[in-house]
Amino acid sequence: MQGERGIRRILDGTNEDDMHVYRPGIQALKELQIISPLAELHITKAQVKELAAFYGISVASRPSTPCMATRLPYNTEIDYDVLAKIGEGEARLRAVLTGNVRLRLHGDVARLEVDRASFKQVMERQREITETLKNLGFTYITLDLEGFRSGSMDVGLDHWES
């Protein structure tokens, strides 16, 4: 694949773990002939973090940051202004909360997912959190009582194939 800019190969960071969960973008990677060397070599996310730590790369200590599109339901038009608003909301929440923080948007409802260990912290700061998110333009603010979980927007999807 050689485009206008003379690029013959594109590599991405898909790893072995990604091959065992629903990742709709993997089909696009295949269609575009993008190479996923970590997945091809069966290197897991944990191994990537170990290698990063060994080489002193800062990503080793950072939490995962999945694609912002995972904050929206499937078949929702991607609006970059909405994604920026979600990103800003998550950044402000991370400034006052520990652990995983995700804002999932369902129409007018912003569903906050945090680690269960952070529930008390959310309730203690609920006025501040609500005000912050409403000032960003979110209408309804909810706390997901199941807590943070990867792939929560995949609930209800039919079986997938890797």
Low-confidence stretches: none
User: Strands across the major sheet, in which order?
Assistant: 1-2-3
Give the distance, in angstroms, between the N- and C-terminal Cα atoms.
23 Å
Relative helix content: 25-40%
β content, as a range?
5-15%
Structure, explained:
- The structure is a single chain.
- With 162 residues, the chain is of the alpha+beta class.
- It folds into two domains: 46 residues, no CATH class; 76 residues, GMP Synthetase, Chain A, domain 3 (2-Layer Sandwich).
- Helices cover 32% and strands 10% of the residues.
- It has a three-stranded mixed β-sheet, with helices on one face.
- The chain is globular, with a radius of gyration of 18 Å.
- The model has no long low-confidence stretch (mean pLDDT 88).
Features:
162 residues; alpha+beta; GMP Synthetase, Chain A, domain 3; 2 domains; 3-stranded mixed sheet; 32% helix; globular
List the helices and strands and how they pair.
Elements (H helix, E strand, L loop, with lengths): L24 H7 L5 H4 L4 H10 L25 H15 L6 E6 L2 E6 L4 H6 L1 H10 L4 E4 L19
